[in-house]
Amino acid sequence: MKRILWMVLMNLWFVPYGLTRLIRMSRHPENYTLEERFALIKLIDKRAIKGGRVDIDCHGLENLPDKDGYILYPNHQGMFDVLAILHVMPRPVSVVLKKELANIPFLKQVFACIDAIALDRNDPRQGMKVILKVAEEVGKGRNYIIFPEGTRSRNGNQLLDFKGGSFKSAMKAKCPVVPVALLDSYKAFDTGSIARQKVQVHFLPPILPEEYEGMKTVELAALVKSRIQEKIEEEESGRTAPHELN
Question: What are the phi and psi torsion angles at 226 (to 5°)?
């Protein structure tokens, strides 16, 4: 909460302009192209991250498919995750979010601008509609973020189980699956500090449809988790190695 307040304070001059444009676009998104709406969200995101004293260390942008119509599957550490990914994405991307976030002021307007889809985790029927909707939109060339853990890990860079159901949209759309490893994203909002932090975003090589053809959703989930786990362990071992040498 302290960092969120700091983000606002450091951008008081920008808030009236950004908020006015955000409200206007979110009320009538059909009057603006997706690129125009995404550009505004990225601008707001950029100002918030800079004001909030967070540095984004991004790797692997070359791993993003050249053609739109793919799904990003990052590990989930907290509310800052989406900000970090949007900050570095070169092209529009939307997100599947839990319905509890869908009506929070400001977030509601942001999600409306990027055509986010709300998921009710307690309603299997609605969940199936979301799966079909995402698959349909991805087939049309839209890109999405889905958090396969379903809820954020509260143990730093440790992962929770990845849910097989999260991959049904990708399998139905037969689209590239892009694992995304996030490190230290939890430190932005969950440490109660406004000290400068660095968050790492690693886009890993995509898993193409022909690679996961014949797999079950739980098998694909396990594969994505293993690749993210491997990258996190690699980065964490690299941080500790210099100390071990001393």
Answer: -65, -35
Average pLDDT, the chain: 93
Q: Is residue 17 within a helix (H) or strand (E), and if so which, with residue range?
A: helix 15-27
- pTM reported for the whole predicted model: 0.93
Domain assignment present for residue 143? The answer is yes
What is the band of 246 on the pLDDT scale with cuts at 50, 70, 90? very low
DSSP string, 43-73: HHHHHHHHHTTEEEEEE-GGGS-SSS--EEE
Distances (CA, A) of 130 to 5, 37, 112, 170: 33, 22, 16, 12
Q: Is the dihedral of CA 108, 109, 110, 113 positive or negative?
A: positive
To 10 degrees, what angle do helices 34-51 and 2-9 make? 110
Q: What is the pLDDT of residue 242?
A: 54
CATH number, domain of 187, equals 3.40.1130.10
Per the document, the length of the chain is 246
Does residue 243 lie within any of the structural domains?
no
Q: Domain residues for 74?
A: 2-236
The domain total for the chain is 1
In a domain, 137, yes or no: yes
